[in-house]
Design goal:
The strands form two sheets. Strands 1, 2, 3, 4, 5, 14, 15 and 16 form an eight-stranded mixed beta sheet that branches. An eight-stranded parallel beta sheet has the order 6-7-8-9-10-11-12-13. It has 17 helices and 16 strands. The longest helix has 22 residues. It has 423 residues and is an alpha/beta fold. A hairpin with a 2-residue loop joins strand 2 and strand 3. The chain is globular.
């Protein structure tokens, strides 16, 4: 018998989310690849065999054997859009929104992102690391094993680079795998109020090159982990011409592209991002039918973020049902951040998407695992239970995977395995 590091067996449902190396679309979104009474063998942090429990136990032996006791075993969840490195909070704005204040009005008055920028600029690296580790712990407890983290609460060279330094420390110290994204164009900083073009010039002429230098010297580069640029294309933020300038400059340097688009207003940012082969376009509440067709025929993943709509008390959500039905590759995210989506739980995002965006539980799970991994450039190594991929697993307190989206307000996670080790 072949000896491995770990065997997991007796899974009532082994939910693999297998995709054959491709992002899932259309009918494939409803296939989560269930193996009844399933098991896996793990060695060197990767899956070496996936099948029935009897087949795994007949071929492999291990010192560490986990009996899933008939529960669901599924891939570790992937969160492809977060803003968890920040200082301060926005509790006062929570109350303002309940009273009817609009997000863009709060931003225009110096609140919102700018409020968090002030606190983050003042915070030390140590303070940001300590606070962000606690947020990652919350995500891990809910089953997230891989995530993207953006900068964007510095809006100056020094603080944006400080946030990148924090992200690297987090990746070294926490079990969750992290993909970094540079979002210096998150809002227009106070120093450039009324002169967004001037700040765009600073981003293109200085900040991007310093950020890329950081990346080349970081362990992310040595791990071949991608590094993305992102822009918030929206009223009171950046228009399409400014977005294009940043994307073109970043692309020449080597960045991958992601885009905050169509959250409140359709300015044409989705079309631009897809023209530039973006890995993802995110939010999509105001995306047009023509852009949905473009998305369906592109390599770009559309990330929908129902937690933001839920947090704002909205009744309108991105039409993810229409996007899936039209053949778009759709992923799901919490957008975990201090203002518009203070939510660490991908299962909660799944629960909301099923109710308000009419995703089936199978579609929500694929959107929060394998498709989310493709949205951050890790689809070949993360997001599904397949031989050769990293062994990231969640064991649920349920015998049917649909319970992950069906039940909300609690936590269905029983065990988390990260790269073959219990965490």
């Amino acid at each position: 018998m072949q000896r491995v590091d770990m065997i997991i067996h007796n899974a009532g449902q082994l939910v693999t989310c297998v995709s054959g190396g491709r992002v899932k679309r259309g009918a494939a979104m409803q296939d989560v690849g269930i193996i009844d009474d399933g098991g896996v063998a793990i060695a060197d942090g990767k899956f070496v065999a996936v099948g029935t429990s009897s087949a795994i136990r007949a071929k492999f032996t291990a010192d560490e054997v986990l009996d899933a006791e008939g529960r669901v075993v599924c891939p570790g969840l992937v969160d492809p859009h977060t803003h968890i490195v920040y200082a301060g909070d926005r509790l006062n704005e929570f109350e303002l929104k309940i009273k009817g204040a609009d997000y863009l009005d709060i931003l225009a008055s110096g609140g919102g992102i700018i409020s968090t920028v002030r606190h983050t600029r003042e915070a030390s690296i140590e303070m940001l690391v300590e606070q962000s580790l606690k947020r990652l712990d919350k995500m891990l407890a809910c089953g997230t094993t891989t995530c993207e983290i953006k900068t964007g609460y510095g809006l100056d060279t020094e603080t944006e680079l400080k946030m990148l330094a924090v992200i690297e420390v987090l990746d070294k110290r926490h079990p969750i795998d992290i993909v970094p994204t540079f979002l210096a164009a998150h809002a227009v900083p106070p120093e450039f109020k009324g002169n967004a073009d001037g700040y765009v010039g600073l981003i293109c002429e200085e900040m991007l090159r310093w950020a890329w230098k950081w990346y080349e010297e970081s362990h992310f580069s040595s791990k071949n982990r991608p590094f993305f640029i992102d822009v918030f294309t929206e009223k009171n933020a950046y228009d399409v011409a400014q977005t294009r300038r940043i994307f073109e400059t970043a692309s020449e340097i080597g960045f991958g592209i992601k885009a905050h688009v169509d959250q409140f207003t359709n300015l044409g940012g989705s079309r631009l991002a897809m023209e530039m082969n973006a890995a993802s376009i995110d939010h999509l509440d105001a995306i047009s039918d023509a852009e949905i067709e473009l998305l369906a025929n592109s390599n770009t993943v559309g990330i929908v973020i129902p937690t933001e709509n839920f947090n704002a008390g909205k009744t309108q959500f991105a039409n993810a049902r229409k996007m899936i039905d039209n053949g778009c590759a759709i992923a799901l995210s919490t957008d975990y951040n201090p203002g518009s989506a203070p939510c660490p739980s991908q299962p909660m995002a799944m629960a909301i998407s099923c109710r308000y965006q009419k995703l089936l539980p199978s579609e929500a799970l694929n959107a929060a695992t394998v498709n989310a991994a493709f949205a951050i450039g890790l689809g070949e190594t993360h997001g599904s239970i397949e031989v050769g991929k990293q062994a990231d697993i969640v064991v649920m307190k349920a015998s049917d995977y649909r319970a992950l989206a069906y039940e909300f307000g609690g936590n269905m996670t029983a065990n988390v395995i990260k790269a073959g080790e219990a965490v």
